[in-house]
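#onboarding

Welcome to the new folks! Below is a worked example of what a typical request in this channel looks like: someone posts a single protein sequence, and someone else replies with the predicted structure as tokens. Don't worry about understanding the tokens yet, we'll cover that in week two.

Example request:
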Amino acid sequence: MSNLTALSNQEMENVNGGTHPTTLLLLTLLLIGDESAEE
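Example response:
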């Protein structure tokens, strides 16, 4: 989970830097899917 958090922070920096906004969306979906899979 810590790896996902680190990745999330990195992606947020990329989005703030004007890189791919869709990456954050995909990562959000991945996090939501991950939480759903655990339950």
